[in-house]
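Section 4.2 – Deliverable D4.2 (structural model, holo form)

The reporting period included a commitment to supply a predicted holo structure for the target in complex with carboxymethyl coenzyme *A. Inputs used:
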Amino acid sequence: MSDKATLEIKGQKHEFPLIVGSEDEVAIDIKTLRGVTGGVTTIDPGFKNTGSCESGITFLDGEKGILRYRGYSIEDLAEKADFLEVAYLLIFGELPTKEQLDKFHADIKEKSVVDEDIKKIIESFPKAAHPMGVISSLTSALTSFNPSSVDVSSDEAMYNAIVKILGKFPVLVAWTMRRRMGLPLDYGDDSLGYVENILKMMFKRPDKEYVQNRVLVDALDKLLILHADHEQNCSTSTVRIVGSSHAGLFASLSAGISALWGPLHGGANQAVLEMLEAIKEDGGDTKKYMAKAKDKEDPFRLMGFGHRVYKNFDPRAKIIKVAADEVLADLGIEDPILDIAKGLEQEALNDEYFVKRKLYPNVDFYSGIIYRGMGIPVEMFTVMFALGRLPGWIAQWKEMRLRKEPIGRPRQVYTGENFREFKSINKR
Ligand code: CMC
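Output (structure tokens):
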């Protein structure tokens, strides 16, 4: 294969180098395009064909259903690693030794205390406020309480900003949920593992000793690992682009959380459960909803189906489907919603509309069922996604800063009015 691509514009030929990734992905390097062509640009709404960066963190092959973090398969990581190990792997590039992991965890715990004044901010939100809006605001507010986190010019300063947010974010998650539920806002338990501590912070009641449930810990560990990174998706691209202006890490993450909130992205896990509930309330007629999803006049989409990149199957969905069965069985829960989900999946997998468009269940199709089994309120589902995605966002932001990427600033093709003379108001 030639190592160049040739573009002919108005009879003029221009050559551009090809970049080949470590999995033989080929990209045309158009960094010089505007310069050599006298201002010609590219247009690609939704960035369906545009690579925004070179990255060594996550590889995914949507045709083959492959997802790997730093070269390790998602299947192996979900089965054999815990979430904190995966966070370390994503952020620092290698699986940690026992000593490295212990130090990382100790540093996170050391920085996990959240300023008491943050409670005043939480209390000023309406109790019914959507937790994604609350958590995005609180994450941004953390900068005011930790102004030194913005300067990441040394390795040490960058490391400190990272362990701070990994320590404090779970506290914010727990407080956001507890405030909705009318529970006191407590701190974590330094003696526990990262994920065990999250569960205790979320669910501990003031009148009872909290008893750890291994099934819940393992299930949450797995869910967080499956959500931990997914290369240049909407929220991650947001984190990278906001961070590219050298806004602080916490502000960049806050923007990523807002991007994740939408139902076409992370908000799908809440939307899936609400859809399944609505189908159940409506008598469980899955065929009716399949027809709605296919009707181009109807805005309804089968939530939890389809993916921008996966056009074969989502490997995370496969793992989650098995986990949903196991967790509900272990907890002794029979959930009719799970049957509706399985019925819909079967119908969609055999339906020409879905087959032709390569629409398969995605990670969010079954995750909500597990969260519900764990007792997590539906509005918190996307917050749980954010908790899982946190190490991925951090790793991508860190990579962007260390590679000294330029500020993100796309071009456009202007289609508005040409020059017009200004008319004073009485002449319009
Ligand atoms: N139900 C019905 N039709 C669909 C669906 C769906 N869930 N998803 C895509 N289509 C159709 C769409 O109407 C279009 O049909 P046509 O070619 O006839 O116009 C075709 O499939 C291609 O869809 P698209 O919107 O151009 O594809 P996209 O790559 O821009 O969007 C998506 C991907 C995930 C936004 C979309 O599939 C979707 O809206 N799914 C439902 C929301 C969802 O589950 N999101 C979670 C994604 S996974 C978690 C994450 O990483 O955020």
